Amino acid sequence: MACTINFNSDSTGSFYAGDIVTGTVILELKNDQKFQSIDLKVTGICKASWTRSMPTMPYIKIYSEKKKVLSLLMTDIFRDHSNGSTLPAGIHQYPFHFALPADIPSSFESSIAKVIYTVKIKSKPAYKLRKMASFNVLGNINLNHIEELLMPSFNEFRKTFRNSGKFTICVRTYKAFAPKQSIPFEITIINEKKVKIRKINVILIQKIRYNVQSGWADEEKKICKTEYKKFSQNIAEICFFNMEIPHLIPSSLNLIEPMVDISYIFRLQVIFPFHFTLQEEIPVTVATSPVIHCEF
């Protein structure tokens, strides 16, 4: 007896919150088999767990929670193929479909937490047939109706040197985008005393906040980086470069009290050979649908 669960997903292997998941269960029997029923169960589980040391007993505090974010059941899916309680030898197919709620979290996995979605096939009696397959879910984030997020953003940062005057940097970029988009940076530098600059880094950082009933924890992950090194050392100069956005989990928008809350920033670093680094953060939003930006 062989059982296969196939999904009709897109090129990324993902489904999107609010969409319809479709697929097929294929059951191949070499001999006639008696089943009371064969059920299909769809489940989404979100769980998180971590520990922190404590100064007093019990010295270690455990933060842990598990909750179900999706639960669907289709019973006796092969009843139209059976003769009473007997399923004849041969290949049996069951096309299935179900709707994903619009407010479920994206699939996720880290050392602290996991959000996983599965389809399980289980027979009665249970020992005869058990099969499980997981599928990937992404939040369905389209920001093209928010005009403010389609426009280039401007951020100005300053640094004062003890003996070298003021240093000003103005960053022009976009504050919302989707995977596979190329994001431009136009950086204007006002360098009154021509302080030497080693390089400018822009790093896309994924920031994660884990929320359980007993507490929270923060984590961040470096996603990708671009840099600029060719400076003219004039009092004023303009730098142009780009960042290619990789495949990403979208920002956690439209979710109520998510256990895994995902957001993003650009971390700007201006690195000097003889002075402390100027480091600033620019909040950004990652969508699912490509953002149709206004002209840069």
Characterization of the model:
The protein has 296 residues and is mainly beta. Strands 2, 5, 6, 9, 10 and 11 form a six-stranded mixed β-sheet that branches. The longest helix has 4 residues. It is elongated and about 90 Å long. It starts with a strand and ends in a 10-residue tail after the last strand. The model has no long low-confidence stretch (mean pLDDT 93).
Spans of at least 5 consecutive residues whose pLDDT stays below 50 are none
- The overall pLDDT, averaged over residues, is 93
Indicate the multimeric state. Answer: single chain
Largest sheet: number of strands, sense, barrel closure: 6 strands, mixed
Structural class: mainly beta
Pfam families: Arrestin_C (PF02752), Arrestin_N (PF00339)
Domain Arrestin C-terminal-like: 163-291
Organism: Mythimna separata
Keywords: Sensory transduction
Key attributes of the depicted protein:
Immunoglobulin-like, 1 helix, 296 residues, five-stranded mixed sheet, six-stranded mixed sheet, mainly beta, single chain
Question: What secondary-structure arrangement, pairings included, does this model have?
Answer:
Elements: E1 2-7, E2 14-16, E3 20-29, E4 33-34, E5 37-53, E6 60-74, E7 86-87, E8 90-99, E9 108-109, E10 113-124, E11 130-138, H1 147-150, E12 152-161, E13 165-174, E14 176-177, E15 182-191, E16 199-212, E17 215-228, E18 236-244, E19 260-271, E20 278-286
Parallel strand pairs: 2-11, 14-20
Antiparallel strand pairs: 1-3, 3-8, 4-7, 5-6, 5-10, 9-10, 10-11, 12-13, 13-15, 15-18, 16-17, 16-19, 19-20
